[in-house]
Amino acid sequence: MSFTTLPFLILVGASVVLYYVVPKQCQWVLLLAASMVFYCVGGGKTVLYVFYTAATVYTATLALGHWNTLKRNAPKEDKKAITAKYKPHRRAVVAAACLANFVLLYVLKYWNFTADLLQPAVDVLIPGAQIPLSELVLPLGVSFFMFQSVGYVIDVYRDKYQPEKNFLKLLLFVSFFPQMVQGPISRFDALAPQLLAKRSVNYTDLKYGIQLVMWGYFKKLVIADRTAVLVNTVMDDPWSHSGSVLAFAIFFYCIQLYGDFSGGIDITRGVARMFGIDLAENFRQPIFSTSLTDFWRRWHITLGAWMRDYLFYPLSLSKPFGRLGKFTRKHIKGKLGKIIPTSLATFIIYFVIGIWHGANWRYVAFGFWNGAIITMSLLLAPKYVQWKEKLHINEDSRWWHLFQMVRTNILVFFGRYITRAPRFLTAVWMVKETFLHPHWPDLWNGTLMTLGLTGGDFLVIALGVLVLLCAEWYEEKHGSVRAMLETKSPLVQCVAILVPLVVLFCFGVLRADYISSDFIYKQF
Amino acid sequence: MSSKKWLAMFLATVLFLGACVLGFNRLADPFGVFPGKALEWPSYEMTMNPRTAKITYLKEHHQEYDSYVLGCSSTSSFPVEALNEYLDASFYNMIMYGADMLDVEQDAVYLLEHYEVKNLVVNIYLDNACTYDQVSNPLSYSMPPETTGESPLTFYTKYLFMDPRHSLDKLAAMREDTYLTQSFDVFNAVTGAYDKKVRDAESIGSLDRYYETYPIFANYPEASYETTREAVNGTLESLTRIRDFCLEKGVNLLVVTAPVYADHMDYFDPQQVADFFTGLAQVTPYWDFSYSSVSFEPRYFYDETHFRNCVGEMALARVFGDDSIYIPEDFGVYVTPENVQAHVEAMGNTQPMAAEDYTAEVPVLLYHHIAQEGNEDIIISESLFRAHMEALVQNGCTPLFPEDLAAYVQTGAPLPEKPVLITFDDGYLSNYEIAWPILEELGLVGTIFTIGSTAGNVDHYKDTDHPITPHFSWEQGSEMVASGVISIQSHTYDMHQWAPYEEGKARENILAWEGESEEDYRQALSQDCDLIRQTILEETGEDAVRAIAYPSGLYDDLAQVTLLENGFDITFSTQVGCNTLVKGQPQTLLGLCRYNMNESVSVEQLLEWVAPARG
Amino acid sequence: MMEELLAILTEAVPGVDFELETALVDDEILESLDIVTIVSEIKDAFDVEITVDDLIPQNFNSVEAMLALIEARQN
Predict the structure, then answer these.
(1) Is A521 touching B (CB cutoff 8 A)?
(2) Cβ of B169 and A516 within 8 Å?
């Protein structure tokens, strides 16, 4: 069930109304019911995977919680012994829970990719043998709910909080419907209490929710869906377009991706807000990033945070990395020797982030691209300091800041070649075309008009992006646009309701792909 | 503003916008589902959805009709005018594009139940054996709830909450509307049929030219059509119910099958077609026009699935035994359970007609002024003119009047072996003084397209001081007509003005002035048509004035349509070439080509031009 | 010990006034890379075991917090 369909709006409307009508102790049940409806309508039988994840996580955390309690309640002198005694159990359980989910995720999302990869080898070793391919349907939002659930297991393992004893309540945490499509990846301690809270109607929450939802739809329908037309036209057949058009399409893809993803998150957060629930932020004006690391702290924040807490830290502090650190310090002088293990861990993280996006060489390459650049900049950081001194660059100057922003956005831009091209090698070819055969006149000789968008569409996109940039700039510099609006006169506020609705209706709901009935009897 | 107030405002705005959309859609109603509206435009609405818009139209106009034609789009070409005449009735054509027999049945039941019906004509097309109970685009193909029993609530909701751009399109089309048919108003609301005024006014000639204009006929797309058991059964059952209901109501039912283009027919399995037609005969006797020599002639078809109105006229003439117009011999068989077996067997032997049997090649010569000395423009010397005429005689050519061509096309009257037309434009005195005697002497005939306003101007252009090549007077004209050698026809009364000599804005040809309103222009041209016809009839004693030579050879769709409406159904251009006439295809009389004759045209050249002549 | 820690911090992340800041992590002055670098330095210098469980913002928001963590782990 996509955010942009009528059934979704009906589900949201109905569940918000019911949420405040039903007895307060049933409110969370209603959220669970809405989530199940959402999942069953949108994902059909794949709802079973949600149950699977919830069940594995539930069992594992109950066991872990049990041992945690034993440990906590043990007399001080026994603590060490008890900790030691259950350590293997706890480790086994947490590993089992992670495996149970990741193996399934692997089979669902990555098995066919690996099978294709291994098939040549199998052909040589056992001629005629065929690696069976998975025919399972990828469940809706599987990467999101599995990562969120695994994070919960690890947190319980680390004894950050008590596990949830009620399976249904846990199921709600796993399947809370607004975040099923595009995340964010929430933390149990932040989300669960909110899901289970008892609430009376809060008009401000409703208002904020609606505003956020409208803003999200604006980004998604008005901007992203429009740019997508051109992007798809070009990317369906990149070979018949010149380098400059390819670059333009990737530029549009950057807009599309941001509009679609952050818009989707805004809708998610807005809907949750209508239930009084505050979900984690997933974006913070990524256009203002000054470095690729900074970008990943502003883009898909919850994924980055997940990777940091559950992968980067454990990896960096693991024994092999400790040993590696000792080794490099000993043999490589200066700062370089110290940061090599961290750089390696960083590289691995971005590699995993790449693969998280999907089973394809493109994403492997995408991870490699990010990992390589960030690791390089880590390793070269001392040199940068020297260069900056030589060039007398003032780090606080506005120009330097702007330079950093532009540089970062260019790096992100080229990264998008990799994620959007139909194949990795095509991406390489496209970059080559952009530099070797750009044929710049294509950008103004009318070629762009042949790519599925009209002049009006371009105008809408340009104005939409301008509005988006202004809002982002305001939020970066001054804070919430919403709060600013609230200080304005009622008239302005009413206009701020009417105009977005009209814009949404005219340029969002009335889709670009409208076919007038004119076509019916053209032979006349 | 408090959050509560904000929410109230928000809800109010949402409701307001919803109401705006709803109100606008109701007001504009582009699909014609609501009776009585501010922006009524039935032909547009019928184009968007003929199913709903026609039923809605009839709610207000059903008193004007007592009989109905039903079927898919090819049904349009059974002209209601002919039906009205033959059956002394007032027909409405209910054609719905893409209609299957369920749509037809629903319409028939609705009409029979609600209105007084005398006759019902049901047209069956081969596609009815392939599809039944299909809905494509819901807005354009939905039947009204009165005919289907669908809940009116869901039905009207669909049209109230549709994309308002459909309504906006209607407003935009209103601004672009012209007298001529456009893609957004393809129906004639009064007859219910497709408004073919433009397509029926286009000049048609040789096959090559037709293939060039409509490449689909030259290169018919490959396809394969399968009749299905469900569709055949559904169609036959619907037809049975229509038959029974007509019987019950005492309504005269006429079932016809539409002509199918031969290449289209080829992609059907003959056995399946035979089965379908056999089944049909078990339900009701019907007139089968589907497959005959007509099917092989693309000039009888608008496109691959739609036969032309002129073919519909032939079909109806066959049904009602009217032998005043041409009908191909094998066109139309009355099929009954008794003869159906023989009929479907005979279908396999259907052959195209030989071109000689129904087409003719007619060169037309265009002279202007004749003088002692010719030039390379529009003057020919008397001696060369005489040489031309003598060559025609020696070559066995038979000059004809335009009337003769019309007779060939409309009634199939035979033409001589080598037909030609000798025509003179403008009406110069030299036509009277030189050409007429020569023609008379050699036993030839000619046609003079005279300009009414300059008839009899011998010295000066109209009442100006400007000199003019002398024009013959009406008395002289009447002498020529009386001799039976000359026919005088129209070169317009005063729409071939000589701009430098005119005081006001000149009408140099029959095209509209730039910026002139369509209405003013059509009125001007119609008045001119009346005037020249009246003048010629009264002044010269000519029998009929129905031929016109376009001044300067210029014309366009609007001009041609207007001329046809004013009874000028034989028109001459100045395009060069021979003309192909097709029996039963009156558009072959339009925009006839002519060879411009002057001093540079040798006798050999002339003979070369008239060589293709074939009667 | 304070001096030693400050020296480590300044070397790992130059240009930060560690004595004044009290929200190093929350204000994103220190990012995960820095924290990992700092932790590995601390582990080396003070010979303490710091685990993933200790990597929470509260433990790294200020020099005092870090010092407290080290002391807790030394015992």
Answers:
(1) yes
(2) yes
- Give the lowest-confidence range in A278-292, B167-181, B554-568, C20-34: C20-34
Q: Do C32 and A312 touch (CB under 8 A)?
A: yes
pLDDT of residue A518: 44
Are residues B1 and A502, on separate chains, in Cβ contact within 8 Å? no
pLDDT digits (tens, 9 = 90+) for B112-166: 999 999 999 999 999 999 999 887 678 889 999 999 988 999 999 999 988 898 9
Evaluate whether A28 touches A196 at the Cβ level (below 8 Å): yes
Q: Where are the domains of chain C?
A: 2-74
A21 with A115, same domain: the answer is yes
Asked if the Cβ–Cβ distance from A313 to C40 is below 8 Å, we say no
Structural domain including A328 reads 297-420
Same domain, A130 and A101: yes
- CB within 8 Å: A524 and B181: yes
Neighbouring-strand partners of residue B360: B581
**Tokens read off for B501:** 């000599």
Contact B554, B574 (CB under 8 A): no
Based on the domain organization, do A59 and A154 belong to the same domain? yes
Q: Which of A210, A510, A521 sits opposite B10 (nearest CB)?
A: A210
Cβ–Cβ gap A520/B1 under 8 Å: no
Give the contacts of A212 (CB within 8 A, at least 6 positions apart). A266, A267, A269, A270, A273
CB contact set of B274 (below 8 Å; sequence gap of 6+): B344, B345, B347
CA atoms within 13 A on the CB side of A201: 12
For residues B435-461, average pLDDT: 95
- How many angstroms separate the CA of residue B40 from the nearest CA in chain A? 18
pLDDT at B123: 97
Residue B454 backbone dihedrals phi, psi, to 5 degrees: -105, 10
Cα(A219)–Cα(A237) distance, integer angstroms: 26
Parts of chain A with a pLDDT under 50: 517-524
Among C14, C28, C36, beta carbon nearest to A316: C36
B with C: touching (≥3 Cβ pairs within 8 Å): no
Contact B7 A203 (CB under 8 A): yes
Instruction: Looking at the structure, tell me whether residues A321 and A223 fall in a common domain.
Output: no
Q: Enter the tokens of residue C49.
A: 């075991």
Is CATH 1.10.287.380 what the domain over C2-74 is classified as, yes or no?
no
Q: Which residues of A touch C (CB under 8 A)?
A: 158-159, 293, 297, 308-309, 312-314, 316-317, 322, 325, 329, 338-339, 341-342, 345-346, 378, 385
Q: Which residues in chain A have Cβ-Cβ distances shorter than 8 Å to C36?
A: 312-313, 316-317, 342, 345
> Given pLDDT bands bounded at 50, 70 and 90, which one contains residue B352?
very high
Helices (H) and strands (E) in chain A, counts: 22, 0
Structure-model confidence comparison of residues B499 and B295, the more confident one:
B295
Tokens of A62: 């109950």
Tell me, what's the pLDDT at B159?
93
Q: Are residues A394 and A452 in the same domain?
A: no
pLDDT for the residue numbered A520 = 43
Of the residues A184, A201, A218, which one is the last residue of a structural domain?
A: A201
Mean pLDDT over each residue of chain B, to the nearest integer? 94
Q: pTM of the prediction? A: 0.76
Contacts of B94 (CB under 8 A, 6+ apart): B50, B54, B68, B69, B70, B71, B75, B107, B111, B192
Number of structural domains found in chain A: 3
Give domain status of residue A174, yes or no. Answer: yes
**Same domain (yes/no): A152, A141:** yes
Q: Which domains, from first to last, does chain B contain?
A: 10-347 (no CATH), 357-610 (3.20.20.370)
pLDDT for res A515: 55
The pLDDT value recorded for residue A122 is 87
Residues of C in contact with A338 (CB under 8 A): 37, 40-41
- Tell if the CB–CB gap between A322 and C43 is shorter than 8 Å: yes
